[in-house]
TrEMBL record:
Shown part of the complete sequence: 5 to 227 of 387
Protein name: Bifunctional enzyme IspD/IspF
Site (Transition state stabilizer): 15, 22
Positions of the UniProt region annotated as 2-C-methyl-D-erythritol 4-phosphate cytidylyltransferase: 1-223
Protein origin, superkingdom: Bacteria
Length: 223
C-alpha cells in the first residue's frame, strides 16, 4: 500500500523558547524539519506532507529550501488539530494506504524503525515505537513525591504508523481533550496499536538542552 508521511510542524516550541520554533532552527547547517524530512525520504517514503502554523509560511520555506514537497497544510492550536487537518486534507486528495504521522521536532530517524512500523502494519491497523524507562519515576514537587513504579510503562515515540482510513476515522471521533500523540487517539477508537522497538536517537527536541545534545551528536558524527 502507498505510504504517506504527515509531518506536524505547527507548534510554537514554548518549552524550548528562543527566537524561532524549534523545528525551524538550524542544526548543523540544516533545519530540524529538513533533517526529519530527509530521514523519511531516506527510509523510502516518497510522499511527505508537512503541516505548519498559519503564520509560519516564511519560516517553512526557509527551512525546507529546495525540497520538492507539496504545499504545506495549515495546522491548528493543538497537535491533534494539526494532525486532523492534515488527515482531512489528505483524505480530500484521495487518501493513502498507510500514513506515518511524525513530529518535525525529531531530527534523527533510523530507517530500521520505519521498516519495523511498516512490517507491523501488515498484521495490525496501527503501530508505534516504544522505549523502556531507565530512570526512577516519582511525583514532581519542590520536595520529591512518591516514587511511581515504572514496571509496565514505556515511552512512546513517533513516527506512528496507521492504516489511513482507520486513523482518519479515529481522529474524527476523538473528543477526549488534548492528545499528545496519535496512538492514544487510535486506542480510544478501539484500534490495537502494535508496539515496536523505538530508538534513543529518535528523541524529540523539547528543551534547550535537547537541542544542544543534538548539535554535539552531529558535531561528533555519531549519527
Ligand atoms: N505541533 C503541531 N501543532 C500544534 C502543536 C504541536 O503541529 N498545535 C507539532 C510540533 O511542531 C512538534 C510536534 O507537534 O513537531 C510535537 O509537539 P511538541 O514537542 O509539544 O512541540 P510544541 O508544541 O511546538 O512545543 P511546546 O509544547 O513546548 O510548546
Ligand atoms: Mg506541544
Amino acid at each position: 500500500a502507498q505510504t504517506i508521511a504527515l509531518v506536524v510542524a505547527a507548534g510554537s516550541g514554548s518549552r524550548m523558547g528562543g527566537d524561532l520554533p524549534k523545528q525551524y532552527r538550524q542544526l548543523a547547517g540544516k533545519s530540524v524539519l529538513a533533517h526529519a524530512i530527509d530521514h523519511l525520504a531516506a527510509a523510502g517514503v516518497g510522499h511527505i506532507q508537512v503541516v505548519i502554523g498559519p503564520d509560519q509560511e516564511a519560516l517553512y520555506h526557509a527551512a525546507v529550501g529546495d525540497h520538492d514537497l507539496p504545499s504545506p497544510i495549515l495546522g491548528g492550536a493543538l497537535r491533534q488539530h494539526s494532525v486532523r487537518r492534515g488527515l482531512d486534507m489528505l483524505a480530500s486528495q484521495g487518501g493513502a494506504g498507510n500514513v506515518l504521522i511524525h513530529d518535525a521536532a525529531r531530527p534523527f530517524l533510523p530507517k530500521e524503525v520505519v521498516a519495523r512500523l511498516l512490517t507491523a502494519l501488515t498484521t495490525s491497523q496501527a503501530a508505534a515505537p516504544v522505549l523502556a524507562i531507565a530512570d526512577t519515576l516519582a511525583r514532581a514537587g519542590a520536595a520529591l513525591g512518591d516514587a511511581v513504579p515504572r514496571d509496565g510503562l514505556v515511552r512512546v515515540q513517533t513516527p506512528q504508523a496507521f492504516h489511513f482510513e482507520a486513523i482518519l476515522d479515529a481522529h474524527r471521533r476523538w473528543q477526549s481533550g488534548e492528545a499528545t500523540d496519535d496512538a492514544q487517539v487510535a486506542r480510544a477508537a478501539g484500534l490495537e496499536v502494535a508496539a515496536v522497538p523505538g530508538d534513543a536517537i529518535l528523541e524529540k527536541l523539547t528543551y534547550e538542552e535537547d537541542f544542544v545534545r543534538a548539535e554535539a551528536r552531529l558535531a561528533t558524527h555519531l549519527t
